[in-house]
Amino acid sequence: GAGVSQSPSNKVTEKGKDVELRCDPISGHTALYWYRQSLGQGLEFLIYFQGNSAPDKSGLPSDRFSAERTGGSVSTLTIQRTQQEDSAVYLCASSLGQVKNIQYFGAGTRLSVL
Amino acid sequence: RKEVEQDPGPFNVPEGATVAFNCTYSNSASQSFFWYRQDCRKEPKLLMSVYSSGNEDGRFTAQLNRASQYISLLIRDSKLSDSATYLCVVTSELTGTASKLTFGTGTRLQVTL
Fold first, then answer.
1. Least packed by Cβ within 10 Å: which of A11, A75, B2, B90?
2. Nearest chain B Cα to A106, which residue?
3. What is the pLDDT along chain A (114 residues), one digit of tens a residue?
4. Is-contact A14 A111, C-beta < 8 A?
């Protein structure tokens, strides 16, 4: 079946604008994760969802970042009032929802804040 | 100190060479261990899981030493197509049904003719 799908693949925005990034997980995967990879940096965990709830939001870098997941499927990561330091690749992953399940990644959204 | 540490490289090796990558992790509660591969401007893809008993998949061998909190990846008879960044990944439990992946910054491998 289809893998994890993310859109847009690239997003260029101006500082101060809001952006929405979308993730469509693998069908049947109950756990969904957001990560961020900045240039020259490792992947940084942001938030995860089990079903529609997000038990752990501690990885979100500031209150400008929020995420939601509806219907236990598609998730949206919203960044308000974007800053240049938000420029990064935002990766989404999904898994079957058990601790040892493999996480499968989407191709990411490359965000550039000018 | 970073939770997962790797030598960033780059490792430049000729085709056919054997190359080894090492990784250390700081969280003794880490439960699962993986090597992911990431090609330039692509998403990470699972290469293999890592077990204390060792895990071999063709030319790739991964090993875990829990006592030393050390993970290794050995690539034998390297190919041009092995050129990529290799990410050491450890997991810690978030809840009973989900785990958080913590990535090292990756080790870059360049295999040359």
1. B2
2. B43
3. 579 999 999 999 999 999 999 999 999 898 899 999 998 778 898 998 888 888 777 789 999 999 999 888 999 999 999 999 999 999 999 988 765 678 899 999 999 999
4. no
